[in-house]
Every structure is written in C-alpha cells, then in structure tokens.
Amino acid sequence: MAAEKWVYMVTAQTPTNIAVIKYWGKRDEVRILPVNDSISVTLDPDHLCTVTTVAVSPAFDRDRMWLNGKTKKHSCEKSVIHLVTESVSYILLIENLEISLSGSRYQNCLREIRSRGGDVEDREKGVKIEKKDWERLNLHIASHNNFPTAAGLASSAAGFACLVFSLAKLMNVEEDPSQLSAIARQGSGSACRSLFGGFVKWKMGSKDDGSDSVAVQLADEKHWDDLVIIIAVVSSRQKETSSTSGMRESVETSLLLQHRAKEVVPKRIVQMEEAIKNRDFASFTQLSCTDSNQFHAVCLDTSPPIFYMNDTSHRIISLVEKWNRSEGTPQVAYTFDAGPNAVLIARNRKVAVQLLQGLLYYFPPKSDTDMKSYVVGDNSILKEAG
Ligand code: DP6
Which of 37, 190, 298, 313 is the best mutation target for the ligand 1 pocket, counting ligand atoms within 8 Å of the beta carbon and taking the most? Predict the structure, then answer.
C-alpha cells in the first residue's frame, strides 16, 4: 500500500422503505432477529433517502462519522476530512455533528463488512488497498437524511442500508444484496429491506446465527408502478419511544404480540405475497390497513402502553376508511410506523391527486392541526450516486 496521503471514497444514495406487514419484536436483540417475517415497499430514492459518503485514507487515525451535516459538493480547507491536498469532490461535513461509532450496531456492521473487503486499485489516484488492509485502515463516514431523523419515517432503515451499501462499494465486497442485507440488519432490522427496490420480504429465518434472516425481492419497482405513495407528515418531532425499546417492551409484556407473530402474520405474509403478485389492490389494502392497526394494537397492549398515533392520525384513518367504503372498492391503503405520520398508498395517480386535495381540505396547512407537509413518491430502486 502506498504511503501517500490519498483519500479514496464512494458516495451512495439509499431510499427508505415502508412496511406493509410490520416487523415488531426480536427473538435475538444482538443479531437483530425478528419474531416474524415482514414485507415492505421501497420508496423512490429521490424522496425519503439517505446519502452517505464513505472515505478511507492511511492518514485517518480512527473511524469517525458525521450525521446530517450540511452537504457541499467540493472539498475546501475547512472540511472535516482535511487531509486531502488536491481538490476532490465529496460530501463535506460541517463541525459538531460527529456521532459516536462505539455502539454495538455500528461496530457489528463495520466488523462484518471489513472482513469481506477485497482488493482495490485506482491507479489514477495512486490508491492500492489489499484485502488485509481493511482491518487496519480507518474510515470517515458522512451521512445525511433528507427527512427528519427518528420521527417514525424509518430513518435508520435508509441510514444503515446506505452505510453498508456504500462500504461494500468502497471495499469491493462481492456479496449479493441479500448477503449485504444480513449485515444491514445488524444495524437496524428494517434496514435489510432497503437493499432492494420494489416489494421486499425480510425472511425471519430459523438459524441462531441469523445467516438465513435476509431480505429478498418479491417484485421489482416496475411491477406495480401505478401505485403512488403519499406521506402525510403529521409531526416531524422525534418519537418518545424508539422502535427498539418499544418492541422490547412489547415482547416482554404483550400477549397479543405472541398471537400476532405465531398465528396472524404467517398467513398474512402468504396473502400479501399473492396480492402483490396479482396487483390485487383490494387485498393489498385490506392486509396493509389491518396489519398497521394490529401493530398499533400491540403497542396499546404493551405495558406501559405505547401511543405512536395521535388524533390527526386517527382522523386520517377515518377519512380513508369512509372514502374506501363510499367508493365500494378500496382506493387508498394506509399504514403507520412507530410515529403519527401516515403513509398512504393510492391505487393510481388520479386517486393520489384526489387524496392530496382531500388532505389539504381536511388538514389545511397552518391550521390548528400540526400537519404541515406532504411528500409524494413512487416506489423505485436503490440508486448509487455520483
Ligand atoms: C414499526 O428497524 O427501527 O417501522 O431493528 O430495533 O432498529 P430496530 O428497529 P426498526 O423497527 C422498525 C419497526 C417498524 C415496522 C417495520 O419497519 O417493519
């Protein structure tokens, strides 16, 4: 390995995903192994996504990470990665946004990906890294979410998926997306599903080491591209109970969770796979809505109870239910993660426009409700930037 002050880097962009059959509960907290399978839809990478730049240099003295710094395309003297002499193009990190990498989730991901690193050579930049070098070379990581972090919009899903994906590119790791998903899963369970676009299933697996607890693609993003996903941001405040601690409490105290994981979800997974395969919107809606409602019922069945939805969320549910009933056939599916924000899936663009009009009418921005913005996105694939 040459001793010059080179920096070698990769930038990737990864969308978040929204579960339509929810993951809630772990059977192994360290390896992040779930109590049931789950199914999600991956959003368009240009809407809710994480952009991560990973850099390696012999001059870096330790692994470091910055989250949600301001981004800029060109390096300058004030950049945190200030060891580069030539002007290079990468995401610039601004001071004070460094986060600790000491947590076991980061450490597990970094260890796993490093052990799979391959040889890398970039003659133009004078970079030559051998497989064995990855254990001792340090990394700088800059990550940016284009949406609120920890507000129940699956920021950790996009974040860990992007981290693992960008490191795999940097280190020339030759694993397929399913194998990478098993690494991302150790950062955050839902992250494993963001390694694919379209509809994705996270198989809970049965092995103790978690090697078969991986994500697989059920259908790509073109399979059902009539669907339009609208996220009604009811509140972008950080949630009081994180998904991790919430689901731990549910596993410890909710009998409904046991019933759901063993009796309900296995059947729903089969039905949902069928609905997706056949683009059967009525079944898709029925399964998504009831699964979301059961997940929130499990939260209420937890002791002490966890309230993720608020009055505005409940009003959105009523509105959609009434609309679907009055049309005779479902037009919109809803699902809510660990927060009050509504994820609404319209059967096509025409319905999406009507839905947006309805939302703006019933929840006008700057009214006494706290719902302020809407994000529209089609489902699409994971995209490598730059
Ligand atoms: C309600 O993946 O955030 O969004 O594995 O502890 O990091 P950890 O939890 P996380 O939980 C997501 C829960 C959910 C449902 C889902 O995405 O399936």
Answer: 190
- Whether the per-residue pLDDT at 72 is higher than 50: the answer is no
Q: CA-to-CA distance for 195 and 217, rounded, in angstroms?
A: 9
ipTM greater than cut 0.90: yes
Share of the chain above pLDDT 70, in %: 83
Query: Could you tell me if the CB of 190 is within 6 A of ligand 1?
Result: yes
Q: Which of 238, 239, 243, 313 to mutate to test the pocket of ligand 1 (most atoms within 8 A of CB)?
A: 243
* Banded model confidence at residue 153, pLDDT cuts 50, 70, 90: low
Atom nearest to 337 CA in ligand 1: 1
Q: Say yes or no: CB of residue 243 within 6 Å of ligand 1.
A: yes
Question: How far apart are the C-alpha atoms of 142 and 163, rounded to whole Å?
Answer: 9
- The Cβ-side half-sphere exposure at 275, using a 13 Å CA radius, reads 20
Closest ligand 1 atom to residue 185 Cα is 5
- In angstroms, the CA 38 to CA 40 distance is 7
- The secondary structure of 158-179 as a DSSP string is HHHHHHHHHHHHHTT----HHH
Classify burial at 40, counting beta carbons within 10 Å of its beta carbon; exposed 0-12, middle 13-18, buried 19 or more. Answer: buried
Q: Are 291 and 22 in contact (CB under 8 A)?
A: yes
User: In whole angstroms, how far apart are CA 305 and each of 150, 257, 301?
Assistant: 20, 13, 6
Which ranges constitute the DSSP H helices of 85-176?
Answer: 104-114, 155-170
Q: What is the mean pLDDT of residues 84-99?
A: 48
Res. 106: pLDDT tops 50:
yes
pLDDT tens digits, residue range 303-329? 999 999 999 999 999 999 999 999 999
How confident is the model over 107-150, as pLDDT tens digits? 999 999 999 999 999 888 788 999 999 999 999 998 888 766 55
Q: Going by C-beta distance under 8 Å and a sequence separation of 6 or more, which residues neighbour residue 78? A: none
Provide the pLDDT for residue 155.
66
